[in-house]
Amino acid sequence: MSQRKNIALVCAGKYHDIDYARLELLKLLAEHPDARVTVHDNYALGDVLDDCACLISYTCDVVAGADDCERLRRWLAAGGRWFALHGTNSVIEFVNTRPLEIATPDTAPEFMQLLGSQFQAHPPICSYTVNIADRDHPLTAGLEDFQTTDEMYLCKMTGDYHLLLSCDYTDPVPEFTSTDWQHNAVQPVMYLQDHADGNLLYLTLGHCRGHYDMQPLTDYYPNVERCSWEVPEYHELLRRGLKWALRK
Q1: Which range (96-100, 110-114, 194-198, 228-232) has the least confidence?
Q2: Whole-number mean pLDDT of the chain?
């Protein structure tokens, strides 16, 4: 008989179809009958975190304050596992809308240090190749390089990490003010970072947006974007990531 595993899912934020991402993640978590999930809209998890086998996050422009960062740090160091997705490492500020100018200010350094990276820019949604950087790791073993259409996250790395997936990009991104990502030889797509006895797994894929997710910048966004959520390899990576988080 397997033991019940408590999971905290933090799913909230701006400029994304959070309802869609939340539902899809809950459907994948429902494949684990021993999992019991609590859903949160911020990182002020309090005592909930102490009883959790793992933390799953899909957020954008949502960060933890100093006290919550310290609680997360202690939990990770004691053996916690955190599976962070897409915009979890994003802080976004629209400087201008016409012409478009977007800043990614360094206003949450403690939080980004926990995540091992901070989002800096992405080119317009495009098709690109995701490369398997480590073909021997259980999270990627047996997978082949694949094509996806998504926001290609370009990040400033804030610590040591083990690269699992990558992509190649060197062109400018004029809509974003930061160029710190250009210091990377390759652009990480999925990586592992150790925290004493715990670990963090970050996967940058998974943009999604509906018609009403860019308010108040615009009342109606013309396109529904599902990106990697429509790619079989992404679902395989999510399933493997969840099994990793649950120590399966």
Answers
A1: 96-100
A2: 96
What's the maximum distance between 2 C-alpha atoms anywhere in the chain? 59
- Judged on CB neighbours under 10 Å (0-12, 13-18, 19+), 170 is exposed
Angle between helices 18-29 and 232-245 (to 10 degrees): 60
**Cβ partners under 8 Å of residue 79, min gap 6:** 197, 198
- The CA distances from residue 114 to 79, 99, 199, 246, in Å, are 14, 33, 10, 20
CA distance 219 to 214: 7
The whole-angstrom separation of Cα 110 and Cα 73 is 9
In 3D space, the residue among 135, 237, 151, 242 whose CA is nearest the CA of residue 190 turns out to be: 237
Average pLDDT over residues 143-153: 98
pLDDT at 96: 87
